[in-house]
Amino acid sequence: METFLVYDGTFDGFLSCVFTAFDLKLKNVSIAKETMFQEPLFGTYQVVISDQKKANRVWDGLKKKMSANQLQRFYYAFLSEKPTVENTLYHAILYVFGSKNNVASDFSNVHILEISKLNKNVSREKHRMEAFIRFKLTKDNIYFANIEPDFNVLPLIKSHFKNRYADQKWLIYDLVRKYGLYYNMKIVEVVKIELNDTFDPSKTSSEIFTSSELEFQQLWKDYFKSTNIKSRKNMKLHIQHVPKRYWKYLSEKQPR
After folding, report:
1. What is the rounded CA–CA span in Å between residue 116 and residue 105?
2. Count of Cβ atoms closer than 10 Å to residue 197 Cβ
3. 121 and 137 inside one domain
4. Cβ distance 74 to 89 under 8 Å?
5. What is the distance between the alpha carbons of residues 68 and 62, in angstroms, rounded to a whole number?
6. What residues does 2 pair with on adjacent strands?
7. What CA–CA distances, in Å, run from 85 to 26, 116, 122, 153, 242?
8. Widest CA span of the chain, in angstroms?
9. What's 191-209 look like in SS3?
10. Per-residue pLDDT averaged across 64-93, rounded?
11. Are 78 and 174 within one domain?
């Protein structure tokens, strides 16, 4: 009979489910986020409370079986938030723990191969967010940026922005997942804020942002226009390097 393990959506929660499955010697297991779970007609289910110690035991066990890069692949795949990723990772972990050798790069295994694909997708999104995020100075003297990434990459870009903008307060907010990272020039904190229904993430509103920011946005648009040589314009190549779905973050792409 299938047993469903339901968790809170965190990585520690997922690893706690893996620990529970091993600890109870469960044979037929499915893992699901509580926000996605529907009580099954057949089988049983158990709500697993996130436990740091249990999660660490699983992670420490994986460290003994694979390299740091392979571990990163598993974590990046988890952040893809693909509906089936928990079960993909769980079966891959079973395969890793069940083998004497390091099989975390054995792409003949369908679960290991899927993790590699998800890792590439998330890694690509991480690098694009680091390149395309644009901050705007608010009247509270905080540099604000909003994003809508395909994957949950905020945990992956935290160090990049903390190191790059260490001398200013900033807030990067994920409009899809409704949480953000706030840096107060000392530490980075996870925050949740209530945005006004009239807030337009593509606009630089004078109610929220400083007048100097509005002027800077206009100057940047003028500069971009003046350096753009129409005869050398290659839109196909441009879109290849800067896909259209990222244009909403770029000041130079907004209408005058």
Report:
1. 8
2. 5
3. no
4. yes
5. 10
6. none
7. 19, 12, 13, 15, 28
8. 68
9. ECCCCCCCCCCCCCCCCCE
10. 97
11. no
